[in-house]
Design a protein that fits this description.
The complex is a heterodimer of chains A (about 110) and B (about 110).
Chain A: E1 4-7, E2 10-13, E3 19-25, E4 31-37, E5 43-50, E6 56-57, E7 68-72, E8 75-80, E9 89-96, E10 103-105, E11 109-113
Parallel strand pairs in A: 2-11
Antiparallel strand pairs in A: 1-3, 3-8, 4-5, 4-9, 5-6, 7-8, 9-10, 9-11
Chain B: E1 9-13, E2 18-23, E3 32-38, E4 45-50, E5 55-56, E6 61-64, E7 70-75, E8 84-91, E9 104-109
Parallel strand pairs in B: 1-9
Antiparallel strand pairs in B: 2-7, 3-4, 3-8, 5-6, 6-7, 8-9
Classes of the chains: A mainly beta (about 110), B mainly beta (about 110).
């Protein structure tokens, strides 16, 4: 298993600003994932982040809006840039174990944009 | 990405069994069936997974149809702590990504 922490746990931000969310894992992992969960909705995959390579973004998500860093095997950041109220969501990171490829999720960062 | 279909909500009485269905008619032969649940204000947590055979663990059982186009998550004795949104997810053997469906919100009635 893996224990994941996220910072901040919640934030209220002004429109037009940016927020960087940190994800820390207690063990080395290859695959990390970032999800968005809009109010009352399911989770939507934003991107997959492998250490040492560019993140792979899902349809509808772009690097300019959601830049991701993955400097080592235990840490990643997601930045939400030029925020608007539509970006108000919970942002979660997850990591993948080895076979059978369970994912372990962090507690999430609750973002409110005013 | 393969799709799953689940009822939006279900109710169960406490200490009774619960059967949560999932349809995945476009499943491919190498897709694993994963179930996760999300308790209020928490990230999702792993429940169980399977490929072809029925599976049991300490949390639940997974019954997979012979044609693999549907599956059922079975909670043998629902408790109040089992109230959550349950997600059925197909994971392709060649990829790493999880694509969540809408899930089933389970209410447990005392």
């Amino acid at each position: 298993s893996a224990v994941i922490s996220q910072k901040p746990s919640r934030d209220i931000c002004q429109r037009g600003t940016s927020l960087t969310i940190q994800c820390q894992v207690d063990s080395q992992v290859t695959m990390m994932f970032w999800y968005r969960q809009q109010p009352g909705q399911s989770l939507t995959l934003i991107a997959t982040a492998n250490q040492g390579s560019e993140a792979t973004y899902e349809s509808g998500f772009v690097i300019d809006k959601f830049p991701i860093s993955r400097p080592n095997l235990t840490f990643s950041t997601l930045t939400v840039s030029n925020m608007s109220p539509e970006d108000s969501s919970i942002y979660l990171c997850s990591v993948e174990s080895g076979f059978p490829y369970e994912q372990y999720f962090g507690p999430g960062t609750r973002l409110t944009v005013t | 990405d393969a799709k799953t279909t689940q009822p939006n909500s279900m109710e169960s009485n406490e200490e009774e069994p619960v059967h949560l269905p999932c349809n995945h008619s476009t499943i491919s032969g190498t897709d694993y069936i994963h179930w996760y649940r999300q308790l209020p204000s928490q990230g999702p947590e792993y429940v169980i997974h399977g490929l072809t055979s029925n599976v049991n663990n300490r949390m639940a059982s997974l019954a997979i149809a012979e044609d693999r186009k549907s599956s059922t998550l079975i909670l043998h004795r629902a408790t109040l702590r089992d109230a959550a949104v349950y997600y059925c997810i197909l994971r392709a053997n060649t990829g790493n990504q999880f694509y969540f469906g809408t899930g089933t919100s389970l209410t447990v009635i005392p």
